[in-house]
TrEMBL record:
Gene3D superfamilies: Phosphoenolpyruvate-binding domains (3.20.20.60)
Naturally occurring in which organism (per UniProt): Christiangramia crocea
Annotated InterPro entries: Pantoate_hydroxy_MeTrfase (IPR003700), Pyrv/PenolPyrv_kinase-like_dom (IPR015813), Pyrv_kinase-like_dom_sf (IPR040442)
Cofactor(s) required, per the database record: Mg(2+)
Top-rank taxon: Bacteria
Pathway: Cofactor biosynthesis; (R)-pantothenate biosynthesis; (R)-pantoate from 3-methyl-2-oxobutanoate: step 1/2
Protein name per UniProt: 3-methyl-2-oxobutanoate hydroxymethyltransferase
Amino acid sequence: MSVAKKEYKRITTKSLVDMKANGEKIAMLTAYDFSMAKIVDGAGIDVILVGDSASNVMAGHETTLPITLDQMIYHATSVVRAINRSLVVVDLPFGSYQSDPKEALRSAIRIMKESGAHAVKLEGGKEVKESIKRILHAGIPVMGHLGLTPQSIYKFGTYTVRAREEHEAEKLKSDAKMLEKMGCFAVVLEKVPAQLAKEVAESISIPVIGIGAGKDVDGQVLVIHDMLGMTHEFNPRFLRRYADLHAEMTQAFENYRDDVKNKDFPSDEEQY
Ligand code: KIV
């Protein structure tokens, strides 16, 4: 059943700002490959994030830090080939934008030119202001990401909720306002108290997309492997599982194994 208030043939950065203004929530999911992106796009998900969480769920790394710009472009290119409607946002990976604004711009240009994606996302506030400015000046839409920013996991030392302390909450609020003022089209808030996320969403005109940030924000994002129940060892409170693909896939693989071993597959009808 469709719950969209207005039909959007193609989602643009402007559509998202309009959705916020009209009180329509934004649905965003990650995807990293053609086949999955085709299903996600066909299901009417507004934004597909080619997240650097690919480092975890696709490559099996412990953190998002190892994934490279070339690898992100590979994933983004596969996703872009699949989409008809969704807006495709690609994460700038760790090390591709923090050290130098010119390098940040080069990285963003490579993503846009080589993959055909529509926007980039990067983590941080004031610390990366000059990089954001450069990228925006080149006409590339930027989505911010504040709160629990996984590329800084070794600074935080833990994946627990961020900005519970007054000083961190104040910084987050002022960073969100800065991102809005600079011209970012949206901001992700990850794992922060719901009341703080609500205040931020009410204080800026660009959409706030939450992950573990409560219901009073303008949209939600989940990592697709988590919401499909493929990563059953990852169980944060904010995660709602919409399927148990781990169980279903395991069952399918076991059935196939048994059919092969028992000489049940292929049957006479399944051969030439
Ligand atoms: O990389 C990612 O999947 C993300 C989401 C968690 C927002 O940045």
